[in-house]
């Protein structure tokens, strides 16, 4: 971690008005060191598979400190963090090998509920989100509604005090861990497809719900297809008004994207890449080594630019300015840089860059293993999973549409 | 050795036979099912390949083969690529086959090639790939040759019946190829799985002694044989990659035509059209240079072959990365699933291009190359 501490001067800006960022970063760093379970830290540092309990335990440790929902308003259990503070917090956590915060509850449905929910909904759901006792998933995409989200056809038909839901949702990440789903359903067929969509909270234990695993290209079960067969959901689980779903979804997705550049993780990964390259460079000729170092220098420069870019957007948002496309710009650059970094990392392993077996990163030593093919499992998991980043959360094609549509308006 | 090109009729019969074989035996579901078994049987289709006569493809007619032309072998590998074979067609039939075909003892050579073509013996070349510092060395002892050195990521190390060990004689500096049945040879070997499901191993030779009688080729004839095997290896892996790219471009085209979002086929979006056009350009360029390399086996100089090994690897590595990743991206979520073929083809490209790099390093000096 020594190298990372040396980067401190790069991360911390000269001016800070709301809070002492240097102090806060130190406090976060110390907190992670003292409170992250060593087993979980070992998994993150070595690129190993994390289970639900790793995430829950870490989120609950943050909750005890009052940092889990720091960006929420105080009246709902948050700390009223500014964008800058949240940014500093996330970056420090990632730099110090904490697991990411799973966003479906705290960053997605939580803000929707405290902004648009009824008093009863706030009372019922916010405490479980903050304590991580209720695990949420997000039911948005469908087989024929991916990039074209508004084309969704899962229906909810009113029947007395209930809605009867039928249809299917795709790419429902961690639905197999979830207690609740926040879901977009069609309650009305309208001329404009963005209308007639309703934001509905569904208890995953309701009869008629089937969760089918989808194994992704990394050989891991992260995501699912969820089927609804006459699932009866109480009408009081509608958030906002019937037909408000699209508005709420847009509000939520804007939050999903704000820290999408995930720079803390990338800075940590860059250090790991350097460790790997140093280890494998011994087998290289001086010429091969020079080629690798030149390529690495370019990647490192791109990362410095991404960190600076994210910082500038944060400053803009702090100043109350928003060009509306910052999150899209950061998502495109961030995900594509991640992909370049992981390809480089894979190739730094030399011929062992061809090795991969998903099981080899469940337990064990991962990146720290002496067997190069075990290291390769951790590296190639990163390579394979990086392909997902340019597709999920609004594909990079959609982000580019947003950017150019905004600029060319 | 004279290579005879296949006539067009035989060629089209072979192609349709192989297409049928891939369709019947290499449906993606069957392949996945084979890979999910423990232990994985990497040779279950080997008898079928032998029966189809295709293991004879890399050999000249005088040795009982189909002709052995570089371009014919390349086309065959390209057709088989669609199935992402789990059997060592390239490693045993093409690469080791090339070393066997160059043997100087005509009687034994004939016997071994018949064995190989008949499917009863898998041979693997160890060492001398050229892109890695994986040179083995050997020392003459009273009992024979003691072999030393490490090899990284040797495909099918565990499946081979016979090792062809390429080593440098520590005393004379001459290359030497030893042919040793597995039952008479040992080496420390650690096995693992590649990203496309294929088996490989890291090997350590620590003075294991091979009998004097194991010498298959030595000196200049060993050097020539290794050079040819290297060109054939690179050509075959390049052709494999090109065949996989062809499948990816085709699948992506089908998906762009069929997938509807925003009320239209996504292929109607110009941004995707241009990227698809770039995939096609990368593919035909890769195919062209792979063919040029394959032709150089039949009528190129050693210098042509060396340059084309490098040039083809370089172009194909870039094309593979572009096509593999663009195919995934344009398939969106479907491209990310394990159930669908796109990600498997990309994994195959990753493995094949990593293999290519074991045969071809980046060290070619363009400024010094004769024009």
Descriptive overview:
The complex is a heterodimer of chains A (409) and B (371). With 409 residues, chain A is an alpha+beta fold. Helices cover 49% and strands 13% of the residues of chain A. Chain A contains 14 helices and eight strands. Chain A has helices at 2-6, 8-11, 21-35, 38-45, 52-65, 83-95, 103-116, 119-130, 245-256, 263-281, 286-318, 326-348, 372-389, 396-407, and strands at residues 136-139, 155-159, 162-169, 180-186, 197-203, 209-215, 221-234, 238-239. In chain A, the strands form two sheets. Chain A has a four-stranded mixed sheet. In chain A, strands 2-3-7-6 form a four-stranded antiparallel sheet, with no helix packed on it. In chain A, strand 6 and strand 7 form a beta hairpin. In chain A, helix 12 packs antiparallel against helix 13. Chain A is globular. The termini of chain A are far apart. Chain B is an alpha+beta fold and 371 residues long. Chain B folds into three domains: 8-122, Acyl-CoA dehydrogenase/oxidase, N-terminal domain (Butyryl-Coa Dehydrogenase, subunit A, domain 1, Orthogonal Bundle), CATH 1.10.540; 125-218, Butyryl-CoA Dehydrogenase, subunit A, domain 2 (Beta Barrel), CATH 2.40.110.10; 221-358, Butyryl-CoA Dehydrogenase, subunit A, domain 3 (Up-down Bundle), CATH 1.20.140. In chain B, 51% of the residues lie in helices and 17% in strands. Chain B has ten helices and ten strands. Chain B has helices at 8-25, 28-35, 46-51, 70-81, 89-101, 106-118, 219-258, 270-299, 302-330, 341-359, and strands at residues 123-126, 136-141, 144-155, 162-169, 175-181, 188-193, 199-211, 215-218, 260-261, 264-265. In chain B, the strands form two sheets. In chain B, strands 1, 2, 3, 4, 5, 6, 7 and 8 form an eight-stranded mixed sheet that branches. A two-stranded antiparallel ribbon of chain B has the order 9-10. In chain B, a hairpin with a 2-residue loop joins strand 9 and strand 10 (264-265). In chain B, helix 4 packs antiparallel against helix 8, helix 7 packs antiparallel against helix 10 (341-359) and helix 8 runs antiparallel to helix 9 (302-330). The longest helix of chain B is centred in the middle third of the chain and has 40 residues, at 219-258. The two termini of chain B are 29 Å apart. The mean pLDDT of chain B is 95. Chains A and B meet through helix 11, helix 12, helix 13 and helix 14 of A and strand 6, strand 9, helix 9 and helix 10 of B. Chain B: Belongs to the acyl-CoA dehydrogenase family. Chain B: Residues 237-361 form the Acyl-CoA dehydrogenase/oxidase C-terminal domain. Chain B: Residues 9-113 form the Acyl-CoA dehydrogenase/oxidase N-terminal domain. Chain B: This is Acyl-CoA dehydrogenase. Chain B: GO terms for molecular function: acyl-CoA dehydrogenase activity; flavin adenine dinucleotide binding.
């Amino acid at each position: 971690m020594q190298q990372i501490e040396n980067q401190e001067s790069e991360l911390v800006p000269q001016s800070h008005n709301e809070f002492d960022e240097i102090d806060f970063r130190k406090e976060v760093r110390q907190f992670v060191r003292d409170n992250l379970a060593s087993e979980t830290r070992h998994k993150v540092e070595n690129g190993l598979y994390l289970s639900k309990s790793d995430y829950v335990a870490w989120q609950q440790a943050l909750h005890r400190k009052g940092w889990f929902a720091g960006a929420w308003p105080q009246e709902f259990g948050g700390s009223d963090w500014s964008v800058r503070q949240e940014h500093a917090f996330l970056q420090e956590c990632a730099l110090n090998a904490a697991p990411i915060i799973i966003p479906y509850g705290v960053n997605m449905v939580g803000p929707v509920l405290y902004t648009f929910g009824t008093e009863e909904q706030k009372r019922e759901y916010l405490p479980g989100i903050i304590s991580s006792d209720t695990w949420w998933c997000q039911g948005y995409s469908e087989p024929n509604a991916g990039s074209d989200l508004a084309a969704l056809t899962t229906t909810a038909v009113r029947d007395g005090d209930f809605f009867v839901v039928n249809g299917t949702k795709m790419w429902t990440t961690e639905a197999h861990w979830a207690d609740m789903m926040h879901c977009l359903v069609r309650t009305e067929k309208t001329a404009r497809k963005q209308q007639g969509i309703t934001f509905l909270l569904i208890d995953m234990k309701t009869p008629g719900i089937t969760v089918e695993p989808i194994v992704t290209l990394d050989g891991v079960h992260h995501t699912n297809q969820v089927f609804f067969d006459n699932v009866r959901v109480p009408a009081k689980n509608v958030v906002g008004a019937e037909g408000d779903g699209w508005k709420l979804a847009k509000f939520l997705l804007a939050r999903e994207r704000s820290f999408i550049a995930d720079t803390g993780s990338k800075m940590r990964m860059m250090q790991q890449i350097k460790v790997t390259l140093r280890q494998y460079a011994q087998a290289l000729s001086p010429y091969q080594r020079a080629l690798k170092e030149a390529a690495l220098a370019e990647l490192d420069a791109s990362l410095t630019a991404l960190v600076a870019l994210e910082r500038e957007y944060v400053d803009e948002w702090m100043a109350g300015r928003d060009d509306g496309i910052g999150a899209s710009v950061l998502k495109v650059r961030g995900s594509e840089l991640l992909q370049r970094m992981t390809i480089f990392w894979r190739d730094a392993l030399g011929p062992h860059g061809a090795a991969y077996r998903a099981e080899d990163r469940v337990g064990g030593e991962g990146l720290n293993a002496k067997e190069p093919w075990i290291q390769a499992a951790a590296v190639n998991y990163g390579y394979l999973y990086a392909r997902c980043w340019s597709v999920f959360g609004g594909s990079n094609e959609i982000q580019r549409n947003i950017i150019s549509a905004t600029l060319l308006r | 050795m004279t290579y005879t090109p296949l006539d067009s009729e035989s060629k089209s019969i072979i192609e349709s036979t192989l297409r049928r074989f891939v369709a019947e035996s290499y449906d993606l579901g069957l392949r996945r099912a084979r890979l999910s078994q423990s232990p994985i049987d990497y040779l279950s289709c080997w008898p079928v390949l032998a029966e189809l006569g295709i293991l004879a493809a890399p050999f000249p007619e005088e040795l009982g083969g189909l002709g052995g032309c570089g371009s014919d072998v390349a086309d065959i590998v390209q057709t088989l690529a669609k199935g992402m074979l789990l059997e060592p067609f390239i490693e045993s039939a093409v690469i080791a086959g090339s070393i066997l075909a160059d043997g100087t003892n005509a009687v034994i050579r004939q016997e071994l090639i018949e064995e190989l073509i008949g499917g009863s013996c898998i041979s693997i070349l160890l060492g001398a790939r050229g892109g890695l510092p994986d040179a083995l060395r050997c020392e003459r002892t009273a009992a024979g040759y003691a072999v030393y050195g490490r090899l990284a990521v040797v495909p099918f190390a565990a499946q081979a019946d016979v090792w062809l060990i390429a080593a440098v004689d520590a005393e004379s500096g001459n290359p030497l190829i030893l042919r040793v049945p597995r039952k008479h040879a040992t080496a420390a070997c650690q096995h693992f799985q590649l990203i496309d499901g294929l088996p490989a191993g890291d090997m350590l030779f620590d003075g294991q002694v091979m009998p004097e009688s194991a010498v298959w080729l030595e000196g200049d004839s060993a050097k020539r044989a290794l050079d040819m095997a290297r060109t054939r290896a690179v050509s075959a892996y390049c052709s494999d990659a090109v065949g996989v790219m062809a499948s990816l471009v085709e699948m992506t085209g089908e998906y762009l035509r069929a997938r509807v979002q925003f009320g239209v086929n996504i292929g109607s979006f110009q941004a995707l059209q241009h990227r698809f056009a770039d995939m096609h350009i990368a593919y035909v360029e890769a195919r062209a240079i792979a063919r040029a390399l394959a032709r150089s086996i039949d009528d190129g100089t050693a210098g042509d072959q060396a340059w084309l090994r490098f040039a083809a690897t370089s172009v194909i590595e870039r094309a593979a990365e572009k096509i593999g990743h663009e195919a995934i991206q344009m398939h969106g979520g479907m491209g990310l699933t394990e159930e669908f073929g796109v990600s498997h083809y990309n994994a195959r490209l990753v493995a094949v291009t990593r293999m290519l790099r074991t045969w071809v390093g980046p060290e070619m000096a363009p400024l010094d190359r004769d024009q």
